[in-house]
Amino acid sequence: MPKFAANLTMMFNELPFLDRFEAAAKAGFKYVEYLWPYEFPAAELKAKLDQFGLKQVLFNTAAGDISQGEWGLSAIPNREAEARRDIDQALEYALVLGCPTVHIMAAVVPEGESRQAYKQTFVENVRYASEKFKPHGINICLEALSPEVKPNYLLKSQFDTLEIVEWVDRDNVFVQLDYFHAQNVDGNLSRLTDRLRGKFCHIQIASVPNRHEPDEGEINYQYIFDKLDEMGYQGYVGCEYKPRGETVAGLGWFEKYK
Ligand SMILES: O=C(O)[C@H](O)C(=O)CO
Ligand SMILES: [Mg+2]
Q: Which of 5, 36, 52, 106 could bond 75 through an S-S bridge, CB–CB 3.0 to 4.6 Å?
C-alpha cells in the first residue's frame, strides 16, 4: 500500500505553515513533504516533525529569485557557485530533518539560451550533489514540469529527466515521477511507469486537469497505486495537490489508506 506524504506547501493552506504539521498528523498522515524549508531554522522544523510523529520525505533546493522568473539555479551556466551553496544548504537541512531525498531544481531556460549548456551545467551540479549526499545515504530526485505550470523549464517530459539521470550516472540520482506532469506531457502512464521502473524513487500525485485530490479527473489512481504495489515500489507518494476546498473535507479518498 502506498506511503502517502502530505504536501504542506499545497495542502492545509487554511493554516499558517507551522500549524500544518499537527493538522497533517491529525488527518492521519505519517509522512510530509513541502517545497522549501529555508524560511525556518531546521531545528524548528525538526521539532515539529518529532512533536507530531511525522517523517519528512522530500523537499527542494532553493528556487532562486522567483520574482525574476527563476525556478531553480542548478542548470544555469555561470551560476554554479550559488547552485552549489544551495545544494550544501539542502544537505544541512536534510541531515537535521532526517530527510532521505532532496529534489534538485533545474532552471527555467530563457528564450535564446542554449538548452544543451543548461543540461551540461545541471549534470555537473547534480554530480556535485551526488558526491556530497552519498556518504549520508541521501538520494537526489530530478523532476520534469509541464509547460502549463512552468513554461520553458529545462525538463518537460519524463524522458528529459531520464536522459539527465542516465547522463549523471550516479546510483543515488533518480526521477521524481509526478503523475500530474507526466499525464499532461507524456500520457500512457502505465507503460511510462514500466519504462521508468528502477529509475524513480519518489512519486507525486494530483488530479488532471485541475491538480486537485486524486479522486477526480482523468487518471485512475487506484489502478496506478495497485500497479506500484505490484512493482514493489517502496518509496513515498507525495500528495502535491490543491484541495478543492477545506483540506480535511477532501480527504475521503485517503480514509482507506490510513
Ligand atoms: O511543481 C512541482 O510539481 C514540483 O514538485 C515542485 O516541487 C516545484 O516545481
Ligand atoms: Mg511535483
A: 106
CB 58 within 8 A of CB 238: yes
C-alpha angle with apex 164: 163 to 165, nearest 5 degrees?
Answer: 95
ipTM for the predicted complex: 0.98
* Assigned fold of 3-250: TIM Barrel (3.20.20)
- If you write DSSP's letter for every residue of 160-226 in order, what string do you get? HHHHHHHHH--TTEEEEEEHHHHHHHT--HHHHHHHTTTTEEEEEE--TTT---TTSSS--HHHHHH
Mutate-to-test residue for ligand 1 from 74, 155, 178, highest number of ligand atoms within 8 A of CB: 178
Helix (H/G/I), strand (E/B), else coil: 166: helix
- Residues lining ligand 1, Cβ inside 6 A: 35, 60, 103, 143, 145, 149, 178, 204, 240
pTM for this predicted structure: 0.98
Atom of ligand 1 nearest to the CA of 9: 7
Nearest atom of ligand 1 to the alpha carbon of 153:
9
Residue range 7-63, pLDDT digits in tens: 999 999 999 999 999 999 999 999 999 999 999 999 999 999 999 999 999 999 999
Number of residues written out for the chain: 258
**Residue range 87-133, pLDDT digits in tens:** 999 999 999 999 999 999 999 999 999 999 999 999 999 999 999 99
